[in-house]
Amino acid sequence: MRKGRKMDKYFQQGDVLIVPVSDINEDLQKKEDNIVAEGEATGHMHRVLGDDVEVMVGPNGDIFVSAPKGATMTHDEHHTINLPVGKFKIGIVQEYDPLEDEVREVRD
Questions:
Q1: Pseudo-torsion of CA 11, 68, 66, 70, nearest 10°?
Q2: Among 22, 43, 58, 50, CA closest to 108
Q3: Quick one: which of 7, 26, 92, 94 has the fewest CB in 10 Å?
Q4: Are strands 94-97 and 29-31 parallel, antiparallel or unpaired?
Q5: How confident is the model at residue 104 (pLDDT cuts 50, 70, 90)?
Q6: Residues 50, 41, 30: CA angle, nearest 5 degrees
Q7: Strand locations in 1-108 (E)
Q8: CA distance 45 to 27
Q9: What's the whole-number average pLDDT of the chain?
């Protein structure tokens, strides 16, 4: 997330952040496996499932989900979460380390 940006509603599963968006760029490539993030150490994955769900990736690696009938996100080590009807951008939770004066991604 950009500094200072207000989010009214978002979802989180472990280190994955799911943010509703109003539109998705049409210049994206569909991912057939519906995986939105993979664990670095365990090999477990965050996957979005549901009727007519599409997971897409942009040229810069941004991942988006279109869930016209809602969806569920699964992971072996986290509770399944339900997503409402909508479009979402997938990100990784970030934390600020004031001692290092840096922002870094949180990984599970």
A1: 30
A2: 43
A3: 26
A4: unpaired
A5: very low
A6: 35
A7: 11-13, 16-21, 29-31, 35-38, 45-49, 54-57, 63-67, 71-74, 81-83, 86-92, 94-97, 102-105
A8: 25
A9: 80
User: pLDDT (tens digit, 9 = 90+) per residue, 77-95?
Assistant: 888 999 999 999 998 865 5
Q: Which long-range contacts (CB under 8 A, 24 or more apart) does 20-28 make?
A: 20/86, 20/87, 20/88, 21/64, 21/87, 21/88, 21/89, 22/87, 23/87, 24/56, 24/64, 24/66, 24/87, 25/58, 25/64, 27/58, 27/59, 28/56, 28/57, 28/58, 28/64
65 HSE (CA, 13 A, CB side): 32
Q: Which residue has the tokens 């490539």?
A: 29
What's the token pair of residue 15? Answer: 């280190």
CA–CA separation, 97 vs 76, rounded Å? 29
Hey, CA dihedral for 48, 72, 11, 53, is it positive or negative?
A: positive
Domains of the chain: which residue ranges? 12-105
